Each structure stands twice: as C-alpha cells, then as structure tokens.
Amino acid sequence: MTNPNILYPFIYPKMVKETVFLKNCISNPNIIIGDYTYYHDYTNPERFEEKNVRNCFFCKLIIGKFCQIAVDTTFIMDNSNHQMNGFSTYPFFLFDNWKDYTPEFPLKGDTIVGNDVWFGTGSVIMPGVSIGDGAIIGAYSVVTKNVQPYTIVAGNPAHLIRKRFTEDVIEKLLQVKWWDWEYDKITRNIKTIVGADIKQLAEAV
User: Fold this and answer.
1) What is the pTM of this model?
2) Options 3.10.180.10, 2.160.10.10, 3.40.190.10, 3.30.2010.30; which CATH number does 13-164 get?
3) Segment 52-81 mean pLDDT
C-alpha cells in the first residue's frame, strides 16, 4: 500500500530523496496539502514551505490531492503585496519612526488548487488564484488569473492553450472525482484512471 503519510514515496533509487509527499513536511497551519500531492526538487524538497511559498501569514494556500509539483514552482501569497493606491509603494510602516500611517494592501485572498493538477518547472502562482481540478500549468508560466478545470495554460501571463477534453467529459470527470475514491478502488482502477475512456471510469467499481 502506498502510504500518504510517508515522506519519501518514490521507488526509483535516484529520485528517492528528491521527491516528498508534501503534507508530511508542512508546519505552517495556513498551508493545507491533500494526500499524495508531491513536490520534486533535486536538493532538499523537504524545504518547500521555506523555499517555494512566499509570505503565507494570514491567507491560506490550499492544495488538493494527487497534485504533481515540479522543481522551482513558487506560490506568491497575499502578504507579499505592497500598497499601490498612493504615490509610493515603499513599506515605510515597517521601519522605526515611519509608522504614522496605516497601509491599505490590495489583498486577493486565499490561493486554492484543486486535485490532480500538474505544475511545470518554475511555474509561479500569484495571490488569490484558484486552479481547477485536472489543470496543467506550463513550465515557467506566471498564473495571474483563475484556471478552469482540465485546461492547459502557459506563458507570462499564463493564457489558455486548450481544454484537455470536451465539455461533457470534463463535467463527468468533475462528477466522478476519482481522487476521493477509497484507496483499494483507486488501486483496482489505475489503468482506467490514466486512460481516456470516461464511460469505463464512471462505471468503475
């Protein structure tokens, strides 16, 4: 049984210490990671919270199950913002003797990622973005807007490349939610999950 509570899940010797099930190395309560979501990095993937999530203090980063996060993917959180409604963006309030005003930040809220999302190498996710189930984020993309389920986006800023499936298949996939199945059912149906027969997936037992 593949245990989601172990730190190093990969069976390939070279990659054993390069990949972690992320939820097992997160201490910040504002970062919530689902089972089987992994991060790959050539050095110290356990430091994802420190190296890859910027200023997650008051907002939340919520990532679903079975997501695949490639090296150098970065989540920029709301607390990285500067005030933008005045003449200067400089954070004077952080320094002694310059605290005589209250900053107004352009806060965008939590960053929410669905299930089975693939993040390409070096992708950057900006604050307050929602990414739907089954989406693919191209390498080195900068995601500034919400991404719909089962779509591929790429570029800076990221834009729609194409939908992965037809609308009716996407709707059915969002109903089936295979990532919420019991472990044994997932195990029995791996070939169907990685296949492309929606009828077979919907009828899986």
Assistant:
1) 0.92
2) 2.160.10.10
3) 94
What confidence tens digit (pLDDT) does each residue in 76-100 have? 998 888 888 889 999 998 898 898 8
Phi, psi (rounded to 5 degrees) for 151:
-120, 155
Among this protein's residues, is 82 annotated catalytic? yes
Catalytic residue among 2, 50, 82, 166: 82
What is the rounded distance in angstroms from the CA atom of residue 33 to the CA atom of residue 31?
A: 7
Residue showing tokens 């806060």? 107
Find the angle CA(13)-CA(14)-CA(16) to the nearest 5 degrees.
65
Exposed/middle/buried for residue 117 (C-beta within 10 Å: 0-12, 13-18, 19+):
buried
Pairing mode, strands 151-154 and 159-163 = antiparallel
Mean pLDDT of the chain: 94
Spatial contact of 123 and 143, defined as CB atoms under 8 Å apart: yes
pLDDT average, residue stretch 129-133: 98
**Domain range annotation of the chain:** 13-164, 165-205
